[in-house]
Amino acid sequence: MLRGSADLLEELKRRAGSCVDEAAERLHSLSQDIWSCPELAYEETKAHDTLVEFFRREGGWKVDSHFTLQTAFRAVWGPGGGDRDDVVNVGFLCEYDALPDIGHACGHNLIAEVGAAAAVGLKAAVESSKDFPVRVQVTVLGTPAEEAGGGKIDMIKEGAFEGMDVVFMAHPSQEDAVYLPCIAEHDVTIKYHGKATHASSHPWEGVNALDAAVLCYNNLSVLRQQMKPDWRIHGVIKQGGVKPNIIPAYTELEYYVRTPSRSELPVLKAKAEMCFRSAAMATGCEVEVEFAKNIFDNMLQNATLEELYERNGKALGMEFITEENLMDKAGSTDFGNVSFVVPGIHSYFYIGSDALNHTEEYTVAAGDDRAQFYTLRTAKALAMTALDVLVCPELLQRVKQDFTEAKLKEDRMQKQNDRMSKNS
């Protein structure tokens, strides 16, 4: 990079950080409003309205308040019309759904704040330069229903990510990390239908749906002996009967099926489905197997974005988790699906607490004032990373090349798994 470009980049990064600091009070209020009124997937009406109003008040943003989904939105700043090919479209994602009973125990109020803060910081930096090297569009997408359903997947199907060049978001955790393993996942509900009768006077007249549920559970437990070490199946019996003296006529289980790559998921699903159906056959029950409409893909890494983000984070004082500690953590997110359609990064950030996600303690931590320093620091790092790829065209090309190579690797794995399935 030429000296002049390097000086410009550092000045733009300082401007982005200053703008985030200047907006700190408004951003904290945004986060607190969402945290204090937790809403479940696809029902995030107040959080949605709060974010829409935030961008309308900030000025300069064109806001589509119900973009592809009722509780989704899009806020866009930048050039309109003209030749799309000469504009770099940078996206930031906001999540804001909560968990049942325990509220914002995954800190999605902070994800919303990070996305908004980074977008506002980037906009200010670009506006501050009269000779910015490229035309820039900043797009913020409000993406509901990450915890259940997969709102981003719905939005992908509706074309919400078309035209984006790169996309950023960050998720609260117990540490700062450029990446944590996010694996493919599919929800499935299993329903057994039997026949009720008196459990003591004439049990032989019944067909026991609870027996089917127990056999299903045990079948899957036995299956684990033949599962790969990094495959996962876990679930609960949601309905197990009414009273001990009534042979249960209906039971219901819910399971999550997970594999490191989406290419392996059909293999494990087929094995699991044999467990579901054999339990029905053994007990004489009828069975319904209902896979959720959306499959969560594994996340594609982007080495260039991760390297840039780590460099910017360290400049701001972040201490990143070591490589050795990465593999003992694995979850799933609908950002995985986004990573297959747009180059992106889904980093993680410490919020001042060692509490674990999806606990009551994490709910408290996500609403604590101490989380603000770390949240805004993360937003600055995202904005700084966006500036890197905007000011240095060769970096954006590297980002896109990483994306292409990661998809090609997944395609090769898919073909390999297809061949193995045919031969088995």
How would the blueprint of this fold be written?
Blueprint: H1 3-22, H2 24-35, H3 45-58, E1 62-64, E2 73-77, E3 87-94, H4 108-127, E4 135-142, H5 151-157, E5 166-173, E6 184-193, H6 209-223, E7 232-239, E8 250-259, H7 265-283, E9 286-291, H8 303-315, H9 335-338, E10 344-350, H10 360-367, H11 371-391, H12 393-423
Parallel strand pairs: 3-4, 3-5, 5-10
Antiparallel strand pairs: 1-2, 2-4, 6-8, 6-9, 7-8
Helix pairs in contact: 1-4, 1-11, 2-3, 2-4, 4-11, 6-7, 8-11, 11-12
Could you walk me through the main structural features you see in this protein, from its secondary elements to its overall organization?
- It contains 12 helices and 10 strands.
- It has helices at residues 3-22, 24-35, 45-58, 108-127, 151-157, 209-223, 265-283, 303-315, 335-338, 360-367, 371-391, 393-423; strands at 62-64, 73-77, 87-94, 135-142, 166-173, 184-193, 232-239, 250-259, 286-291, 344-350.
- Strand 3, helix 4 (108-127) and strand 4 form a beta-alpha-beta unit.
- Helix 2 (24-35) packs antiparallel against helix 3 (45-58) and helix 4 packs across helix 11 (371-391).
- It is elongated and about 85 Å long.
- The chain starts with a helix and ends with a helix.
- 47% of the residues are buried.
- The mean pLDDT is 94.
